[in-house]
Structure formats: structure tokens, C-alpha cells
Design brief:
InterPro entries: HTH_animal (IPR058912), RT_dom (IPR000477). With about 260 residues, the protein is α+β, with helices and mostly antiparallel strands. It has three domains: about 90 residues, no CATH class; about 80 residues, no CATH class; about 45 residues, no CATH class.
């Protein structure tokens, strides 16, 4: 019933979904992944025969190594012959580079066995906009916006030259969005310190017992609308009050910006 009797409203007209699942359905993502796993299982033998050496998929994007360029159209024909509504397109390597999601893969041909480097990929339509420093949102949102792209650079860039170039690009972008230079440097330094600490630590810690439920009982959550500095003042007073009234509890404030 969940997959064959779905209905949706469009322009005040009620429609019945006769194929697939409607966008936003709670079942859509998991059912699509199940179907694609089945699709791969059925078609993989034929794909290997036609030259596929490596097949990695994320949702509906795949990254593949094939025997040579002559195999591409044969592989595409296999993929697009299985179901009329499941149609693939292909993007091939250009100038020794290929993008996959937000990763740019660079082939290095200086050795007998090719090696690969990775850095951050941005679409040609990238505008350089991010959460601006004067946006009327909680400070934690702005800090998170900057830390997110710094962490992405650290995880994607495969060597320190590419990482340095990406961090310089992030600095310029953040400055254009109004962030002070010292704030940017502190965030980069914090994330790089975490990287160095994790790289230098070889100690394997034993698994700890699951204490999620115990920790959850320690916290009280409170959502309040964001109204600038007054919100932070109110949040601090509320935390102070809870600390005195409920010493075993910790208050977690969730500041919601205006819609």
C-alpha cells in the first residue's frame, strides 16, 4: 500500500503516483537504495564483462574505472537497457581530472603506475557566498559555516600543497563575506591542531560501554527564538538558574533564527 497507493496534491488537483515514490516520501531514500543495490547485483556480471574494473556508488552517483574509452558506450547501453525509467549519463575524464560529488580527482602520469590526488571540487556556478558575518543568526551558525568548509578541505585534499591552496581560497572567501582575518586563522588553526593530534596518536582505545541513554538523562533541552545579544544574555541566566536548581542537569540551549 505504501508504494502502490501514494497520492499527492498539485495545483489543487489530487494525483495517484503510479510509478516510483513521490519526492519527500519517508520511504523514498531507503527504497531507492534497495532498488539500486538490486540493480547492481543483477547487472554487475555484464558490466564486468564489458570492462568495468571498479564501481563505487553514492546514492545515484557512481565512480568507475573501465578498461578503455571504447568500453564507455557499451557499459552505458547495459545500464540504460534494464529499466526505461532508470537512465544513466556519463562524464569522462578531461585533462587528467574528473569530479565526483565535491571531490576533484587528478591523475598523475609521471610514473609507470598512475597515482591520484584529490582536492575540493566546485561547480562553475559557485558564487563564493556563505553565511555572512553580519547575518542575523546565532554566532554558532557562523562558526559552523566556516568550520564545515575547513573540515571538508582537510578530509578531501590528499597532500599539504593542495590543502594549503584550498585553505588560502577559504580565507579569501571568508574575508569577502565579512569575517575578520584573526577569526578565520583561529578556526583554521583549531581544525589543523585536531588533524595533527589525531595523526600523531597511535593509541588504540578499547570500546567503551554505551552510555547514550545515561548521558541523555543529564541534559535538559530548551529551544528559544534568536533575537540577537539579548538571546545569549537570557540563555546564560537560564543556565545559571538550572545549575542552582538542578545541579545534576545540564541545560542545552537551541537558538532558532527567525524564519
Amino acid at each position: 500500500m505504501a508504494t502502490t497507493q501514494s497520492h499527492f496534491l498539485f495545483n489543487n488537483q489530487l494525483y495517484e503516483q503510479i510509478d516510483g515514490l513521490f519526492m519527500g516520501s519517508p520511504l523514498a531514500a531507503i527504497m531507492a537504495d534497495i532498488y539500486m543495490s538490486h540493480f547492481e547485483e543483477v547487472n554487475m556480471p555484464q558490466l564486468i564483462i564489458n570492462g568495468v574494473h571498479l564501481w563505487k556508488r553514492y546514492v545515484d552517483d557512481t565512480f568507475t574505472f573501465v578498461e578503455n574509452n571504447n568500453c564507455v558506450q557499451k557499459i552505458l547501453h547495459v545500464l540504460n537497457s534494464y529499466h526505461p525509467n532508470i537512465q544513466f549519463t556519463v562524464e569522462t575524464e578531461q585533462n587528467n581530472t574528473l569530479s565526483f560529488l565535491d571531490v576533484k580527482i587528478i591523475r598523475i602520469r609521471t610514473t609507470i603506475t598512475p597515482s591520484y590526488q584529490t582536492t575540493v571540487y566546485r561547480k562553475p556556478t559557485y558564487s563564493g557566498l556563505m553565511t555572512k558575518s553580519d547575518s542575523f543568526v546565532p554566532f554558532s551558525y557562523k562558526k559552523l559555516a566556516l568550520n564545515t568548509i575547513i573540515k571538508r578541505a582537510i578530509h578531501i585534499c590528499s597532500n599539504y600543497v593542495l590543502l594549503h591552496n584550498e585553505l588560502e581560497f577559504i580565507k579569501v572567501t571568508a574575508l569577502k563575506n565579512g569575517y575578520p582575518c584573526n577569526f578565520i586563522e583561529v578556526q583554521i588553526g583549531t581544525q589543523m591542531s585536531k588533524l595533527m593530534n589525531s595523526s600523531s596518536s597511535n593509541v588504540i582505545t578499547p570500546p567503551q560501554p554505551n552510555t547514550d541513554n545515561k548521558n541523555k538523562s543529564k541534559y535538559l533541552y530548551c529551544e528559544i527564538p534568536y533575537r540577537g545579544k539579548t538571546t545569549q544574555i537570557f540563555a546564560n541566566k537560564l543556565k545559571h538558574l538550572i545549575q542552582h536548581q538542578k545541579p545534576t542537569k545540564q541545560l542545552r540551549i537551541i537558538q532558532r533564527p527567525p524564519k
